[in-house]
Recover the amino acids of this structure.
């Protein structure tokens, strides 16, 4: 089964609405209609409505950077799946390392968010990855597969088939250090093998696994040439329409 590559841009806490509008307008001119790749942009929550407006009728899709695990309630500052769908989101990033590092996200809350999103039409992009200390202690397999198994606990194979996984070595995010294509492939292959062992070869074969961590136009082709890398979750390089377009057209 051919897996359609996904190139997703995580805009983190950058860009006001006018900046989002101008960047997306430029991006539409550069990549609208490019075939054989799913293009997703995840701007800040305040710009989701702007993204919906600018991307109407476009092949570029958009999503949110986080979501709460409850359908509604007294959770100041949070957004529910219904709110994201209401504004037109199709995707949501869950468990990004920055959420884990700075905002106390745990494997348990990641699992709750994932389950909530899968009860709706949102496509979750589940982030997993190890820190430099964990890699140097030779704990990559324990950490990454542990995060994966705890996130997917209790989900059916059918639910899991709707998830996009993003492997993001924490030591390579925004540091300019990229895992070599071989290092990235090794972990992607390990994730796919784990899914095959825990579930089925059909599920493992169909699931898309993205690489995230200092992906840029200069290294994207080499990363995408690896057998188990199905796209990229891009930070810094996605903020500029030209450089992101180069990634989409790698």
């Amino acid at each position: 089964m051919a897996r359609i590559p996904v190139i997703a841009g995580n805009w983190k806490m950058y860009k006001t609405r006018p900046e989002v509008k101008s960047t997306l307008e430029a991006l539409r001119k550069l990549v609208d209609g490019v075939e054989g790749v799913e293009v997703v942009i995840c701007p800040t929550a305040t710009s989701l409505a702007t993204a919906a407006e600018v991307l109407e009728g476009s092949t570029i899709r958009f999503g949110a950077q986080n979501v709460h695990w409850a359908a509604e309630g007294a959770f100041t500052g949070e957004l529910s799946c219904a709110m994201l769908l209401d504004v037109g989101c199709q995707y949501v990033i869950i468990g990004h390392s920055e959420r884990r590092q700075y905002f106390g996200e745990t494997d348990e809350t990641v699992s709750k968010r994932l389950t909530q999103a899968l009860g709706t039409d949102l496509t979750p992009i589940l982030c997993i990855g190890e820190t430099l200390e964990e890699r140097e202690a030779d704990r990559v397999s324990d950490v990454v597969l542990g995060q994966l198994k705890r996130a997917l606990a209790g989900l059916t194979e059918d639910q899991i088939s709707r998830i996009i996984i993003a492997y993001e070595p924490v030591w390579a995010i925004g540091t300019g250090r990229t895992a070599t294509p071989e290092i990235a492939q090794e972990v992607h292959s390990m994730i796919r093998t784990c899914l095959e062992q825990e579930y089925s070869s059909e599920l493992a074969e169909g699931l898309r696994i993205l690489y995230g961590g200092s992906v840029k136009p200069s290294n994207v082709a080499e990363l995408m040439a690896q057998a188990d890398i199905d796209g990229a979750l891009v930070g810094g390089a996605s903020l500029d329409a030209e450089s992101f377009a180069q990634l989409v057209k790698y």
Q: What stands out?
A: The beta strands are 6-10, 38-42, 61-64, 91-94, 123-128, 164-167, 209-212, 231-234.
